[in-house]
From TrEMBL:
Segment forming the signal sequence: none
Species in which this protein is naturally found: Synechococcus elongatus PCC 11802
Protein name per UniProt: HpsJ family protein
Coiled coil: 112-142
Keyword terms, alphabetized: Coiled coil, Membrane, Transmembrane, Transmembrane helix
Transmembrane spans: 15-41, 53-70, 90-111, 230-249
Top-rank taxon, per record: Bacteria
Length: 256
């Protein structure tokens, strides 16, 4: 048997206010928790925190809408309800204004720290590339010295080159180049090794540069997309909470 409207309506009003209150409080708890262990000197913390706050900002908007709907329904059922729960009703009317101010501040804070964070990340990529370049230089220096010594021994020992070639230890694509070094002075061997090392090093440097450019482009795309999304969402939240605040301020003081 269906419940009478008179019994369902008060339950709906309480449910709307309760659910709205839970939604608002759950986000406020998240906001407070995000401030625990805050790193105020780190731009990336501001970026992550402001993004989190703005991403969750729509939940209190829904919660306030539900609470005001339940409050309005309760007043329709019992006009005297306007005098009840004064503290909760006052907080619910002040909160949209507070949140609108928070999001007004959050957008420029996010923008400023997003670009600072981007500069830091790009600098880290550059430093990493420099470290890789230094490691590459050391690696090639050691490899060049070792290869020069090996080739000088290979061509300086009579019959060793032919023996090694016959055993198949020399890659087929390098046999012709090595044969040109037979009987050549050590200076020619040094130039041969230096030339091949320069070509190999140039190839690896190009790969390092391409990887650096790829990381740089990825960071710029990520920051741009996050900044645009967060800024637009923040502005929408400002409009939403500002609209609610304006509506509350225009109400008759007797109904507030």
């Amino acid at each position: 048997m269906a419940a009478a409207p008179s019994s369902v309506a008060p339950l709906a009003a309480r449910a709307l206010r309760l659910v709205g209150l839970v939604l608002v409080l759950s986000v406020l708890v998240d906001y407070v928790a995000s401030l625990v262990g805050a790193n105020w000197s780190e731009p990336r913390w501001y970026v992550a925190t402001s993004s989190q706050w703005i991403d969750r900002g729509v939940v209190p908007l829904v919660g306030l809408t539900l609470w005001f709907s339940g409050d309005w329904l309760a007043q329709q059922l019992d006009p005297l309800a306007i005098t009840q729960q004064k503290l909760v009703r006052a907080i619910a009317r002040i909160l949209p204004l507070v949140l609108s101010v928070i999001f007004i501040l959050a957008v420029p804070i996010h923008l400023s720290n997003a670009f600072t964070s981007q500069a830091q990340r790009l600098e880290e990529v550059q430093q990493q590339a420099q470290q890789q370049q230094q490691a590459l230089d050391l690696q090639f220096q050691a490899a060049i010295a070792q290869q020069k010594q090996q080739l000088k021994q290979l061509f300086g020992t009579p019959g060793l080159f032919e023996q090694v070639k016959a055993s198949g230890q020399i890659p087929p694509d390098q046999v012709a180049d090595f044969e040109k070094l037979v009987g050549k002075p050590e200076a020619d061997i040094d130039r041969f090794v230096d030339q091949r090392a320069a070509e190999a090093k140039q190839k690896q440097e190009a790969e390092l540069k391409a990887n650096q450019d790829k990381q740089t482009s990825a960071i710029r795309r990520e920051v741009t997309a996050n900044t645009v999304r967060t800024s637009l969402l923040g502005l929408l939240l400002v409009i939403g909470y500002g609209g609610i605040s304006w509506g509350i301020l225009r109400q008759n003081p007797a109904n507030v």
